[in-house]
Amino acid sequence: MYNTKQITNDLYWVGANDRRISLFEGVYDVPLGVSYNSYIIMDDKTVLLDTVDKAVAHQFFENIAHVLNGRKLDYLVINHMEPDHCAEIENLVAKYPDVKIVCNAKTQSMISQFFDFEFPQEQYVIVKEGDTLETGNHTLSFFMAPMVHWPEVMVTYDQTDKILFSADAFGSFGAIDGNIFADEVDFEHRYMDEARRYYTNIVGKYGPQTQALLKKAQGLDIEMICPLHGYVWRKDLEVFIDKYQKWSTYEPEIKSVLIPYTSVYGNTQNAAEILAGELAKLGVKDIKMYDASVTHPSYIVSDAFKYSHIVFATTTYNMGIFVNMENLLHDMTAHNIQNRKIAVIENGSWAITAGNLITEIVSKWKNTEIIGSKVTIKSSAKQSQREELEELAKEIAKTI
Ligand code: FEO
Fold first, then answer.
1. For strand 132-134 and strand 139-144, is the pairing parallel, antiparallel, or unpaired?
2. Residue nearest ligand 1's atom 3 by CA
3. CA of 299 to the centre of ligand 1 (A)
4. Contact 37/18 with Cβ under 8 angstroms?
5. Å from CA of 84 to ligand 1 middle
6. Atom of ligand 1 nearest to the CA of 202
7. CATH for 254-399, among 3.40.50.150, 3.40.50.360, 3.40.250.10, 3.40.50.720?
8. DSSP characters for 143-196?
9. Tens digits of per-residue pLDDT, 139-165?
């Protein structure tokens, strides 16, 4: 049975939710599920904006048929070719063979990379930066947004209703639970962490490209944002845009300390906990600790974008950095983490190498400073290390 949502008098959400997905993109757990958003504008011409993931195809096609209510589908606009949005292009074209595909040249070549179906060239409408499409009452214009999150990405702006169809930008993990608008839910408490985890892990590497898109968006009069995942924004857009501004410039949201640690027998954890306690005594608020062997890196990467300071505490293992910490550091580097203050606690029972190896990695991060002296634990912390940890806490607190 169809499950559609009306957004304006002639704009409908025809997407679907997946709460059983085990790993989004084969990497990220999504405890709140995920929505695949697709929209139809019912103008003189009918326009579908993007398709959905194959997991929700059945619901999607029921939704389209319901909204079209016997009308033909005139246009499919493809803003993004990642299969969580493009998977149903071939099936859509099979059901609506007269549809015209509106996309840019990069997208057209990606269609032939992902699919084998024949589609007449004359049914393609290839658009470039700033091109427009008149559909009756609506005028749609297209703006390229390369690497937010793939090279072919574009966004579509409805000049008539001042709506930005923003592709992956301004999306969030989390299914749409009945409501469709972000202002109808407690977004700050229920979804903001997942929105951050979504942006930072999916698009976080491409801060400068996201900045370029934000600058283009500043030139548009936007009253509503319709992303490809999560809720639609029609109020307080500046709240979410401000988050994007910070995330895409790697500016911390809060001045506090994130402490990811790994600990084979608990002694490195003990040192990390002592440091955290000393920081608290010095007045640092909202300190956050993670056992990086327990928590998926995507959560820690997300908080690394939020916190101003990061203390890595880990063990030497196989003459290197303990594997889960090494993986986390690799992930943070890959996501372009920068503009942070870093401190290091290392442990080992012989031939301790982890601290220097971490320093080597983080010293390549842009605008990143190592503060305080590295604390070295030999097997377990003793009184002298407690003093070093107290000293490190003071050095960190001074910069907060
Ligand atoms: Fe939701 Fe980059 O796809």
1. antiparallel
2. 82
3. 18
4. no
5. 6
6. 2
7. 3.40.50.360
8. EE-TTSSSTT-EEEEETTTTEEE-TTTT--SB---S--BGGGTTHHHHTHHHHH
9. 999 999 999 989 999 999 999 999 999
Instruction: Kindly report the length of the chain.
Output: 400
> Which among 258, 295, 263, 300 has a CA at the least distance from the CA of 396?
258
- Give the residue among 330, 393, 398, 386 at the shortest CA–CA distance from 358: 330
The alpha carbon of 161 and the centre of ligand 1 are apart by a number of angstroms equal to 25
Pocket (CB within 6 angstroms of ligand 1): 80, 82, 84-85, 149-150, 168, 228-229
pTM for this predicted structure: 0.96
Tokens of 117: 């179906």
Domain 5-249, classified CATH 3.60.15.10, yes or no: yes
In angstroms, the Cα distances linking 7 to 2, 37, 122, 272, 362 are: 16, 12, 32, 49, 46
Query: How close is the Cα of 347 to the center of ligand 1, in Å?
Result: 40
331/329 Cα distance (integer angstroms)? 5
The SS3 assignment for 183 reads helix
The domains of the chain are located at: 5-249, 254-399
- Tell me the per-residue pLDDT of 211-259, one tens digit each, with 9 for 90 and over: 999 999 999 999 999 999 999 999 999 999 999 999 999 999 999 999 9
**Minimum-distance ligand 1 atom for the alpha carbon of 36:** 1
d(C-alpha 65, C-alpha 72), whole Å: 9
Residue 359: both structure tokens together: 């320093």
